[in-house]
Design brief:
By secondary structure, the protein is an alpha/beta fold. It has a single domain, classed as SGNH hydrolase (Rossmann fold, 3-Layer(aba) Sandwich). It contains eleven helices and nine strands. This is DUF4886 domain-containing protein.
Length: 322
């Protein structure tokens, strides 16, 4: 009797140990499994279908991946200001006639040609930022593209890159419904976040939460950008610029003796934050201790961006399809 009881206890212990190990092994980020890129040097192959925002968000991904010991291969189908609709129309034109120049919009290549250049582990999609808050602009193009990618790259994990809202002092914000624009950075973030997650849920995809990370910085009392109210915007004098500390967007700059303003695209700090989020999402690994920092990003701000990127990735993993 004592022997049987001992055997039962041992078997119960082994069962619960195996159950624990199996649960720990499950990814908590909803991201693609990619540990092989570090364990055996096998590159993670990632293909980006996007525009200048995907270029911004992955700008420093190569440097971060190299420092982290992860082999990475990137492929790109990017066109400035390109929407999901336009990407699909380009693919559709190439399918109808492979020789049609309209179907070879990516430096003389079609989307099919570019996807055929490798076996991709991850393929990312994103909406044009001006339309990102209007869920009606995503379909049917998102589904058509997802179906197309799955046909050409059946083993690839498809994810949506959640883009960011424009800077708080922008002259205008993105569309949230037909004929209606967001009235603030916060509203643009809220509506675009909801749209990305709605579409990702419908299509069984994950979301890279770059937009969430941007908003966490933009809404932080200590780290948020604040417009310089002491600068004379009515009569600016080159090369003087307003204070733009902690800006994740390009903002003001001088060109040809004219003061320009870009409230949409990411600054070096914004590109760094985006790349940190991608790193954490793709490799299931914290970027907090990485040393690489773009030259123009202050050390203390860079440290906060690393922490914010990782905490955002971890948080999104619990409800990536919500």
């Amino acid at each position: 009797m004592l022997v049987n009881t001992a055997v039962f206890r041992i078997r119960a212990f082994v069962f619960f140990l195996l159950l624990f190990v199996s649960r720990v092994a499950v990814s908590q980020t909803g991201a693609p499994a990619s540990s092989d890129s570090k364990k055996n040097g096998k590159p993670l192959h990632v293909f980006l279908i996007g525009n200048s925002f995907s270029g911004n968000a992955a700008k420093y991904l190569g440097e971060l991946s190299e420092e982290g010991g992860h082999a990475l291969t990137l492929g790109r189908a990017e066109l400035g200001g390109c929407s999901l609709q336009r990407h699909w129309e380009i693919a559709e034109a190439a399918e109808a006639n492979p020789d049609d120049p309209k179907g070879k919009a990516y430096n003389g290549k079609s989307l099919k040609m570019l996807l055929a250049e490798g076996v991709w582990d991850v393929v990312t999609l994103q909406q044009y930022s001006m339309l990102s808050g209007d869920v009606d602009t995503y379909q049917p193009y998102a589904k058509k593209l997802v179906d197309y990618i799955r046909k050409l790259q059946p083993s690839a994990k498809i994810v949506f890159h959640q883009t960011w809202a424009y800077r708080s002092d922008a002259d205008g914000f993105g569309q949230i419904a037909a004929g209606k624009l967001a009235q603030s950075e916060k509203e643009m973030w809220e509506k675009s976040r909801a749209a990305y997650h709605t579409i990702a849920h419908e299509l069984g995809a994950s979301v890279i939460p770059v937009g969430d990370a941007f908003w966490r910085i933009s809404s932080d009392p200590k780290w948020a950008y604040r417009k310089d109210t002491g600068y004379d915007f009515a009569k600016p004098q080159a090369p003087s610029l307003p204070n733009q500390d902690h800006s994740l967007h390009v903002g003001y700059s001088w060109k040809d003796n004219k003061l320009g303003f870009d409230s949409h695209h990411a600054s070096a700090a914004g590109c760094y934050l985006g790349s940190l989020v991608w790193y954490g999402f793709l490799f299931h690994e914290s970027p907090v201790d990485l040393k690489f920092v773009p030259e123009s990003v202050p050390t203390d701000f860079a440290a906060q961006l690393r922490k914010t990127a990782w905490s955002t990735v971890k948080k999104s993993g619990k409800g990536v399809k919500n």
